[in-house]
Amino acid sequence: MKSAALGFRAHSGWTAVVALAVVQGAPSVLARQRLHLVETFAYEFRQPFHTAEKMPLEEAHAFISRIEAEAQRLARRAITELKESLRTQGYELNRCGLVLASGRTLPPLPQILASHALIHTADGELFRRAILYASSGLASTTAKERDLLTETSRALRLKPNDLTRRIAALGRPLGPPWSQDQKFASLVAWLALASRPAPVTHAAKLKG
Description:
Layout: E1 2-11, E2 14-23, E3 26-36, H1 43-46, H2 48-52, H3 57-88, E4 91-100, H4 109-113, H5 116-134, E5 139-144, H6 148-156, H7 160-171, H8 180-194
Parallel strand pairs: 1-4, 4-5
Antiparallel strand pairs: 1-2, 2-3
C-alpha cells in the first residue's frame, strides 16, 4: 500500500486535519476535516485554562486533565476512522505531522494560572499535546509554524515560492475551505512523508 500522512494545525478546542499522499511525485489530498477536540464546543471547554483560572488549584488540575483526556479520546477516534477510510482507498496511514506554535516550555500549573499570557499558550498546547498522544503508533514530525515553509522547502528541495504555489493549487479542485489552516496542515503532512520521523508513544502530561 502507498503511504499516507495526516497533517494537523490545531486551535483551542479544534484542529484542521488533512490526509495527504504523494502520487507520481505530486501531493494528493485524500481527506480533510475540521475535528472538534471537545464534546461540547463551548468556550468553557475550548479554553480550559481560562476556565480553570477561576477554580481552586486542585479542582483546576482535575478539570484540565479531564479536558485533555477527552481531547485525546476524540483525536484517537478520528485518527482510527481516517486510517480505516484511507485503507479502503489503498493507502496505509503511517505518518503524521503537527504544526507547533512557539514551542515554549510551560511552567507548573500554579504559574500558568497566574499569567494571562501563559494561559493563552497553555490552551493551545493542551490540544496539540492531545493530538500527539492520540497519534501514538504513527511516525510523527513536528515543525514550528514560523519554520514550516523553510523546513518543508528544504526537505522537498523546492523553492519556498514554488512550494507555496503548489499548496495553493492543491486546494483549487476541492473548493473551500482551503485557508491557511488547510495549507499548513498539508505542508506538515508533506513534510512528514518526506522525513524520517521517530515513532511517538505518548506526549508529556501537564506538570502539577
